Amino acid sequence: MHLDGGRRRGFFLTLEGPEGSGKSTQAQRLAARLTASGLPCLVTREPGGTALGEAVRQILLHAPDLSPVPAADALLFNAARAQLAAEVIEPALERGEVVICDRFGDSTLAYQGFGAGQPLEALRSLARFAVGDLRPDLTMLIDLPVEDGLRRKQADEITRFEERTDVEFHRRVRDGFLALAASEPDRFVIVDGRQSVDAVEEAIFEALRPRLDAGLQVSASTSAGPPDASPLHSSEPERSSLRMER
Ligand code: TYD
Q1: Which of 6, 58, 11, 50 is nearest to 210 (CA)?
Q2: How far is the CA of 172 from the centre of ligand 1 (A)?
Q3: Of 62, 110, 131, 146, which sits with the fewest C-beta atoms within 10 Å of its C-beta?
């Protein structure tokens, strides 16, 4: 949670998962639902989300001839992340918005760490250097078997990571995500990505709702500011529209 002088700022939600878990679709669906409930939302993605980030994305995902080594990958993902945090995520949280980010730091731990064998502690230090103490308030891990996810990927979505790495790599990535979730059960929610798109959407919304409701209650009891100082402490009509969807 992002506190500013004791008052809540926005809410930072990340979506993570192995290949083909449908995160991007879910990010859009969730944003539409939250916006309809009166909560201002911003959807962004990694790598990307800024002009610099999109340029780095081209290098990382679509220029296989450059052959970055795993340490270079880690540095480039974090360069894009630093820019995204400073240019997009922090300002949106300061405005009090819900930020939905399609992949974030856990992807580097899963792919470059568990997948490619870079030391986790070094990757964690790098992330601290890149984004300081910015951490997701909640991370939805959309989990599914590696074979199912890779099968779902369309030919036009194939990046260097699907092209150049074997199924074993993706198994380590998936297991890595599950290990990260087990080590931080308060931050992670695991959603079964084998379900239909509608069912995954519902599972994400149901898991998120108590956090938003908790945010509303905490805000109500601790906020020094006006009652509508944060979108998570929405005005009454917005609160009821969020709740009406139950
Ligand atoms: P993308 O096409 O956005 O895939 P997806 O829809 O699965 O998110 O490509 C992102 C790729 O980059 C994906 O294979 C995961 C990889 N990646 C890393 O290896 N490390 C990272 O830190 C991030 C953010 C992504």
Answers
A1: 11
A2: 15
A3: 62
Band (pLDDT 50/70/90 cuts) for residue 9 is confident
At 228, the pLDDT band (50, 70, 90 cuts) reads very low
Q: What is the pTM of this model?
A: 0.86
Instruction: Please indicate, yes or no, if residue 1 is contained in any of the structural domains.
Output: no
Q: Give the separation between CA 35 and CA 242, rounded to whole angstroms.
A: 10
Burial classification of residue 170, based on how many CB atoms lie within 10 Å of its CB (0-12 exposed, 13-18 middle, 19 or more buried): buried
Question: How many structural domains are present in the chain?
Answer: 1
Q: Are 161 and 189 in contact (CB under 8 A)?
A: no
CA of 53 to the centre of ligand 1 (A): 13
Domain boundaries, position 107: 11-222
Which one of 50, 103, 131, 143 would you pick to mutate in the ligand 1 pocket, going by the greatest count of ligand atoms within 8 A of its CB? Answer: 103
Q: Which atom of ligand 1 is nearest to the CA of 157?
A: 2
Closest CA to 20 of 194, 176, 136, 201: 194
In a domain, residue 235? The reply is: no
Domain annotation covers residue 144: yes
Which residues have C-beta atoms less than 6 Å from ligand 1?
Answer: 19, 23-24, 46-47, 61, 77, 103, 107-108, 111-112, 157, 159, 161
Q: What is the Å distance from ligand 1's center to 47 Cα?
A: 7
Domain CATH for 166: 3.40.50.300
Residue 5, classified by CB atoms within 10 Å of its CB into exposed (0-12), middle (13-18) or buried (19+), is exposed
Asked, for residue 152, whether it belongs to a domain, the answer is yes
What number does the ligand 1 atom closest to the CA of 24 have?
6
Ligand 1 atom with the shortest distance to the CA of 104:
24
Cis bond upstream, residue 210 (ω within 30): no
